[in-house]
Amino acid sequence: MLVHPQIDPIIFSVGPVAVRWYGLMYVIAFVAFVTLAKVRIRRGLVPTLVESDIDDLLLYGVLGVIVGGRLGQVLFYEPGYYFENPIEIVKVWKGGLSFHGGFLGVLTAVWIFCHRRGKRWLAVMDAVAPAVPPGIAAGRLGNFINQELPGRVTDVPWGMWFPAIDPGGPVARHPSQLYQVGLEGLALFFILWWFASKPRPVGAISGVFLVGYGVFRSVAEFVRQPEASVQGVFLGVTLGQWLSLPMVLVGIAMIAWAYKKQPLSS
User: Fold this and answer.
1) Which of the residues 55, 81, 131, 163 has an alpha carbon 20 to 30 A from that of 205?
2) Which residues are annotated as a binding site?
């Protein structure tokens, strides 16, 4: 059995200000997004955007991730806790951002950006989707460092004891956060980067993102410990899987629609 390295969530402190690994992971995510999106623009794969658009789009995306992600955590996963402790809602530095909520927040933020700039929303989503998975990987790594969202108890040789989760003694759990780094982060990135390396019908790249994330997240949920705040599973399906199912179905429909109706575009 492996033992979690028990990394201090705080990198360093200056007076009352603490710099946390979880926050640093989001900085890495945003830097990776900007860098990769601009690489695609320089390669001529994103005619709908220029490099300065990415800088502006980042601000919209950050707000969408934080506001949507926090609201998703509050409404989807822990409504009882946050309604009893409303001050905790604003403490995003302690962790607790729902991917599905953040995703809806980003969709809304990008729509506002496109409305103001006169750009086609779906084409912009296609343009930036391949740059998103490394940020997902960084977020999951932050979960691992914080010893949050662990896997289920297991007897596999690489099972890991998370002392913060099981302080009473060694309990081997799946390091599901690392599985998600590999699936939702790295694997999805390589799939999208390859798929988006050639012109595709508008909506196809976004559709592949939806299907890929939804499938990979659903697979990880089989070994991820269901959160107690949502009473585990419903009809044998976790909340994460329920929230991912519409992504897969919409993604499949978008790919079919894109190849049937749309001309080629990046």
Assistant:
1) 55
2) 140
